[in-house]
Structure formats: structure tokens, C-alpha cells
């Protein structure tokens, strides 16, 4: 696992990055509208708004809390010795990177710039899935990261096979998300997400029934 000091340094840096949009939001405060678009439909049209305070302050602090929760759960996992330092770093850096990119596009849109949110989100989610998929098959049994269901936690072989399948599904799903950045088909996203959830669960259960 990561050394104790590196834990603290990584958590400090990532926490500051997550809260960076708050500082930028206050610098842009006078130029931002009272209601800011924070959700967009598949055709790139805004269909959900939040108040300026909620967007600038509330959402970053919500992500800040999630980051700390992820950190504490991972650090205190009874099987944390099975979580490699590389995977732990990836997990801790996901929320900060997503936060910065999403807030850049949110502020630019609020200020009147033309931003293809659908393109950005699909690319971002696709890259995240590809990165996660690249590590899933390497993860050993633990209670925090990976496909954590009763059958995988009960059997090392079930865990390895299920996470190996999930790894390929995440990479394939990520590539389809990247492709959908240009197609922007809502139904395709639904199919991808359902497949990434249902197939590993079904496969793991099938292995369990076969005594694996």
C-alpha cells in the first residue's frame, strides 16, 4: 500500500483540486447567472438548473465529502493489502479530474460559450471506464474496489474470473462511450451501462452455481 505520508499528500492535493471550482466560481461570481445549467439532455440542450450558490459551493463540497468517504473506506478496508498503490492512486484521482473538467464546461456554458457537453461527458466517462477496465483484472479480493458481490467475495476464483470479464466489458464500454461522443445516442448509453452491470452479475452467479 501507499506509505502513510503519501496518503496524506495525495488526499490533500486531490481535495484542493476538488475545491478549486469554488475559488474560480467566486472570481467569476458577478458574471455568472443566478441559475446555472447543471444537467443536459442527449441533444446537448440544458434541462436542469441549480442556483449559483449550489453550483459554486454546494456541488464541489458534495464531491469533497464523496472523496473523503472513498478515501476512508479504501484506507480502512480489512483487505487493503490486496489493493495496489497504483489502483489506489487511480481511485483517488478520478473525482478530482472529473470535477475540474465538468466545472470548466459548466462555467464556460454559463458565461455564454458554446460547449458540446454531450461530447465532453461521453469522452470523459469513456476514458474513465477504459482506465478502470485496465486495472479491474489486476485487483485482488477486497471490500472496496472491484465487482464486490457475495459470490466473488466468497471465492477467489469467482472474483478473478468475474473481474476479468468486467475488465473487458469496461474497456469495451468505454470505447463505445467514446464513439457515442460523436453519435450521441441515449439508448446506446443505456445498453452499455446495463450490460456492464448485468453481465458480470449473471456470470458470477453462473460460476457460483457451478461451484466456482
Secondary-structure map:
Blueprint: H1 4-27, E1 35-40, E2 46-51, H2 52-75, H3 85-110, H4 117-136, H5 150-154, H6 156-183, H7 186-209
Antiparallel strand pairs: 1-2
Helix pairs in contact: 1-2, 1-3, 2-3, 3-4, 4-6, 6-7
Structure characterization notes:
This protein is mostly helical and 212 residues long. The chain folds into two domains: 1-115, no CATH class; 117-212, no CATH class. It has seven helices and two strands. The longest helix has 28 residues, at 156-183. The protein is globular. The mean pLDDT is 90.
Low-confidence sequence ranges: none
- Class by SSE composition: mainly alpha
Strand order of the largest sheet: 1-2
Number of strands: 2
Major sheet characteristics: 2 strands, antiparallel
Overall, the morphology is globular
- The total number of structural domains is 2
Terminal CA distance? 29 Å
pLDDT average, as an integer? 90
Helix content: over 70%
Total helical elements: 7
The run of helices and strands is HEEHHHHHH
| Strand fraction | 5-15%
- Radius of gyration (Å): 19 Å
In short:
71% of the residues lie in helices and 6% in strands. The chain contains seven helices and two strands, in the order αββαααααα. A hairpin with a 5-residue loop joins β1 and β2 (46-51).
Features:
single chain; 212 residues; mainly alpha; two-stranded antiparallel sheet; 7 helices; 2 strands; 71% helix; 6% strand; globular
Amino acid at each position: 500500500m501507499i506509505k502513510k505520508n503519501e496518503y496524506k499528500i495525495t488526499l490533500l492535493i486531490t481535495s484542493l483540486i476538488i475545491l478549486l471550482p469554488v475559488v474560480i466560481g467566486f472570481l467569476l461570481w458577478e458574471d455568472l447567472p443566478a441559475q446555472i445549467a447543471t444537467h443536459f439532455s442527449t441533444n446537448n440542450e440544458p434541462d436542469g438548473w441549480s442556483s449559483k450558490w449550489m453550483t459554486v459551493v454546494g456541488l464541489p463540497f458534495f464531491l469533497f465529502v464523496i472523496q473523503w468517504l472513498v478515501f476512508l473506506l479504501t484506507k480502512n478496508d480489512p483487505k487493503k493489502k490486496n489493493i495496489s498503490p497504483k489502483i489506489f492512486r487511480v481511485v483517488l484521482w478520478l473525482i478530482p479530474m472529473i470535477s475540474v473538467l465538468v466545472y470548466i464546461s459548466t462555467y464556460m456554458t454559463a458565461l455564454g460559450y458554446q460547449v458540446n457537453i454531450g461530447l465532453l461527458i461521453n469522452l470523459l466517462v469513456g476514458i474513465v471506464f477504459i482506465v478502470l477496465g485496465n486495472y479491474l483484472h489486476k485487483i485482488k479480493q477486497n471490500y472496496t474496489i472491484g465487482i464486490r458481490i457475495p459470490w466473488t467475495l466468497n471465492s477467489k476464483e469467482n472474483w478473478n474470473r468475474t473481474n476479468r470479464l468486467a475488465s473487458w466489458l469496461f474497456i469495451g464500454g468505454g470505447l463505445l462511450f467514446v464513439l457515442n461522443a460523436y453519435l450521441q445516442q441515449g439508448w446506446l448509453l443505456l445498453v452499455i451501462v446495463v450490460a456492464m452491470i448485468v453481465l458480470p452479475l449473471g456470470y458470477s452467479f453462473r460460476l457460483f452455481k457451478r461451484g466456482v
